[in-house]
Amino acid sequence: MKPFSFSSTKLTLDDYRRELSDDAAGGYASFEGWVRNHNEGHAVTRLEYEAFEALANKEGERIVNEAIQRFGILKAACVHRVGSLAIGDVAVWVGVSSKHRAEAFAACRYIIDEVKHRVPIWKKEHYVNGDSGWVNCERCAVPGHDHTHEHPHAHDHNH
């Protein structure tokens, strides 16, 4: 399994978890970002994700490798969907195996936060009223934005 990848089909979470299995691991943590039916007061019917995949794959792999080095974990991976997704679909998955749970949780959180902040992925929301709109994390890119991973991001939309 690659450290970071995209998929245009439904994510196979059990397969991904098995790939991170390690006899030296005492813990495993994962995160699933789901497509929800609303965002900022709008009823959402579906989403589309697009990515600049050449750059995104490199940056995503860099993030996973940073997490491995920073937290001393054994294995980690992230898979993000592209294309059209329905309500309830898994849009992004992160998994981490490590010797201890604290490192697994911390690395998992680091990976999803950094992917949202640094990887060039765009989301288009389709609304019940027929409108649609591209959504990005503009507030993450604002100079001086506190991105310490010690607090939840109020602007996390779907993952």
Automatic annotation (TrEMBL):
Name this polypeptide is given: Molybdopterin synthase catalytic subunit
CDD domains assigned to the protein according to its UniProt record, in alphabetical order: MoaE (cd00756)
The keyword NAD belongs to this UniProt entry's keyword annotation: no
Subunit organization: Heterotetramer of 2 MoaD subunits and 2 MoaE subunits. Also stable as homodimer. The enzyme changes between these two forms during catalysis.
Assigned EC number: 2.8.1.12
Keywords of the record: Molybdenum cofactor biosynthesis
One Pfam family cited in the UniProt record for this chain: MoaE
Recorded metabolic or biological pathway in which this protein acts: Cofactor biosynthesis; molybdopterin biosynthesis
The organism of origin for this protein: Steroidobacter flavus
